[in-house]
Amino acid sequence: GVNDKDVMKYALKTLEQQTQPFIAEILTVTNHYPFDWDLPAVSYEDPAFNPIYNHYLRGIAFTDEALGKFWQQFQKSSLVNNTYVVIVADHGLWIDKNAEAEANLYEMHHKQFHIPMLIFGPDITPGTNDQLASQLDITPTLINLLQLPVEKHAFLGRDLLNQKTIANPFVITTGFNNIVTIDETTMCFPYIESAL
């Protein structure tokens, strides 16, 4: 793969050359398994941690630095006043720093599915939204921001910037070879044993 600093530098250069409205995705790879990039150690590693976890910490630190440099350059670019940027993870972490924590299935599922999402752009008031949400909510949110004429139920998900509280929101996702249903207070994960 290509390291995140090179990817983000190339992406910003390419995006600045666009003359028509666009949608683009930048996928980071340095922070993905097998985490075997030759990256420098970070101060918060611990020899007692799972070795893969320490390599994960290095990957996250590298991606964070790359994203920071991208963001600094983006703020100086011609895109800053007419572009929405969504920063979201595809999944959480499936390992922990030690075996005892990995034995807690509830905590591991929470770490697997609890991910960050940030939306930046013109006319977005800074704030937080702590309602249960998922990646399915990105498209409806952006459609509303862009004021695109789309049928009301054309997409699953909801506009996260609409301040109406949704009664009983839920998320259905997959992981660890099973389906997980999550609502505001409960996580149900039927564990399905492999037949093999």
Describe this entry's structure for a reader.
The chain contains 5 helices and 5 strands, in the order ααβααβαβββ. With 196 residues, it is α+β, with helices and mostly antiparallel strands. A 3-stranded antiparallel beta sheet has the order 3-4-5, with helices on one face. It has a two-stranded antiparallel ribbon with strand order 1-2. α1 runs parallel beside α2. It is flat, with a radius of gyration of 19 Å. The model has no long low-confidence stretch (mean pLDDT 81).
Overall geometric form: flat
Count of discrete alpha- or pi-helical segments spanning 4 or more residues = 5
Mean pLDDT over the residues: 81
Number of strands: 5
Give the biggest sheet.
Answer: 3 strands, antiparallel
Helix-residue proportion: 25-40%
Condensed summary:
The protein is 31% helix and 11% strand. It has 196 residues and is α+β, with helices and mostly antiparallel strands.
